[in-house]
Structure formats: C-alpha cells, structure tokens
Amino acid sequence: MGANCCGDDVKFDGMDPRYRRALLIVIFINLAMFLIEMPMGFVGDSQALKADALDFLADTATYTISLAVIGGSLVLRAKAALFKGVSLSLMGVWVLGSTIYYIFVMSAPSAAIMTSVGLAALLANLASVLLLMRFKDGDANVRSVWLCSRNDAIGNLLVIVAGSGVWISTTAWPDLIVAGIMASLFLSGSVAIIRQARQELSGVSPKVRPH
Ligand SMILES: [Zn+2]
C-alpha cells in the first residue's frame, strides 16, 4: 500500500554489505508475495488482494532498480524513477478501472481467502520490517525502505479488515472500497514521482520535494 512512501526516495549509495543482504531478502519476500497474492486475488475475486499484490510487485521493482543503479548518473536514476512513476500510474488506472467494473458486476469476494492471504502479506511485511529494523537509524534511504514496509503492513491490516467486512456484510463493498483507496494512493504517488523525475531530468534540483 505505501505508494506514496515506496517512491523515488529510495536511492542507495555506498552500502553496508549486511544491509545489502537484508535488502536482497526483502526483495525476494516481495516477489514471492506478489506471485502468491495475485493468483489468490483472482481465485478469491478480491480487488483489494490484487491491488495489494501489485504493491508487492512495485516494491520488488523499486528496490531492484534502486540496487541496480547504485553509482549511476543522476539522469539514469531520474529515468528509473520516471519508469517507476509511469508503471505506478498504469497500475492505479487498472485497479481503479477494474474496481469500478466490479461495482456493477458485484461478484462475492471470498472473505476467507482475503483474510488468510492478507494475514500472510502482513507477516511478510513484518518480516521485512524486522530485517530492516536494525538499519533504520542509518541514512535517509534505509529509513524510507523501512517506513515503506511499515506502511505496507498497515495496508495489509486494511485488507484483513475488508475481508472481515465482506464476511459480516456479505457484500463486495468493503473489498471495493479498500481497492479504491489503494488505486488512489498509486495514482497520487505516481504523480509525485513523475513530477520529481521530470524536474531532475530538466536539470532543476528541487529543494522541496513535491509530496
Ligand atoms: Zn509498498
């Protein structure tokens, strides 16, 4: 969920090998959770699970790209951020579009799948938080990855709450509302990232971040 926080702030410079290893494990956890959660989103007919799965994919891509462009030029980094921003906006449009579509279809999401997969996602993000915890007082980049996993854990709680809401209300509304919230976070995050990247590409180094 932290589309606003898992953004272009993640720029690694010279790095502690222990932190690098922790980060590689976090990347693997994010990728594994995307591969589990996306099919389960389709099986359970849950838009919130699909949106949460996309967040894992986005974080996998962000951390991998950030590691890959260490020591790269500012232009390369800004282009990587631009790519991330555009992907994020496509994700937001897809989640928003399919959520609106499901408002008319109103299929019944599986509350059991939502809560159990949401719980697995929560554990995955908590594991990431624990892995990164001892580095959190490091530089700003370490801190932003840590904050990002923490905010994603809060998003997972929202999915679990939505699952309970689906169970209690026997409607798809809690699922669609949480998916809508996630889509708007993707979109607002993408706008901020694209704006920042374009400023960096045009040679203007902004003193104040746009978000
Ligand atoms: Zn995230």
Low-confidence stretches: none
Question: What's the CATH class, please?
Answer: Mainly Alpha
CATH fold category name? Alpha-lytic protease prodomain-like
CATH architecture descriptor name = Up-down Bundle
- Taking all Cα atoms into account, the compactness measure Rg is 17 Å
Outline the structure in words:
The chain has 211 residues and is mostly helical. 42% of the residues are buried. It has one domain (17-201): Alpha-lytic protease prodomain-like (Up-down Bundle). Helix 1 (17-43) runs antiparallel to helix 4 (111-133), helix 3 runs antiparallel to helix 6 and helix 5 runs antiparallel to helix 6. The longest helix has 32 residues, at 74-105. It has helices at residues 17-43, 47-68, 74-105, 111-133, 140-169, 173-201.
Q: What structural keywords apply?
A:
211 residues, Alpha-lytic protease prodomain-like
Summarize the structure.
The chain has 211 residues and is an all-alpha fold. It has helices at residues 17-43, 47-68, 74-105, 111-133, 140-169, 173-201.
Set out the fold topology.
Blueprint lengths: L16 H27 L3 H22 L5 H32 L5 H23 L6 H30 L3 H29 L10
The site of zinc ion has 6 residues, from helix 2 and helix 5.
